[in-house]
């Protein structure tokens, strides 16, 4: 299976290494980035450097397109990939929420979208519970202040997270609203909404907590089939503190599950 990667940063480079060296049955055929020279200079770890392509070229060359770009560029890569009939693997639940027509595009071109969600545990259970009746889903995200700086909600509402000495709640609302206000931070909340009762019906709190060194998410689900609560503490990526290391690993696990003879989890 030929794999193209859109974005070559904290997630893209880790995924590229795995496809290049560690996933049998997959071949890295190209990357798409804004800065071609920077990407070429960063390819030293690959067994063979791959070409830098634009979005349409990447889609034409690939069976699978892995999307690791900022939310604002999501459709630049989603549309060409889906229109080419590719399997589109993304970590951007926020991108899907902001562009719900991607599902119709995929359907009309016999393509598929997979939202890789390893940064949030328990979505198998949430999806199973959603086959019955879910009464309530709540999520509380707590991150070190440096992981939230620059978020549109903070900028628009003049909320500062500098110099905090105790935890500060910076947002409370729905997962849909959180995905707009914190597009680089709460893809997990968007994924939770998509897996369960919808982002508009999923409650979300976001806290800036100077006592933390990890990005922490707790979800609570009350359903007719089960009641459960889960917490995950994700180590920050070196390149982007808003992204956990496990996010890239979730994409790798997703890709491996496409070729392995045994896949564990729904």
Compact overview of the structure:
This protein is an alpha/beta fold and 266 residues long. It has helices spanning 12-21, 36-41, 55-61, 74-83, 93-98, 102-108, 123-130, 152-156, 175-181, 187-195, 245-259, and strands spanning 2-6, 27-32, 64-67, 87-90, 112-115, 134-143, 168-174, 203-208, 214-223, 227-235.
Blueprint of the fold:
Blueprint: E1 2-6, H1 12-21, E2 27-32, H2 36-41, H3 55-61, E3 64-67, H4 74-83, E4 87-90, H5 93-98, H6 102-108, E5 112-115, H7 123-130, E6 134-143, H8 152-156, E7 168-174, H9 175-181, H10 187-195, E8 203-208, E9 214-223, E10 227-235, H11 245-259
Parallel strand pairs: 1-2, 1-3, 3-4, 4-5, 6-8
Antiparallel strand pairs: 6-9, 7-8, 9-10
Structure description:
With 266 residues, the chain is an alpha/beta fold. The chain has helices spanning 12-21, 36-41, 55-61, 74-83, 93-98, 102-108, 123-130, 152-156, 175-181, 187-195, 245-259, and strands spanning 2-6, 27-32, 64-67, 87-90, 112-115, 134-143, 168-174, 203-208, 214-223, 227-235. It has a five-stranded parallel β-sheet, with helices on both faces. Strands 7-8-6-9-10 form a five-stranded mixed β-sheet. Helix 1 (12-21) runs parallel beside helix 11, helix 3 (55-61) runs parallel beside helix 4 and helix 9 packs antiparallel against helix 10 (187-195). The protein is globular.
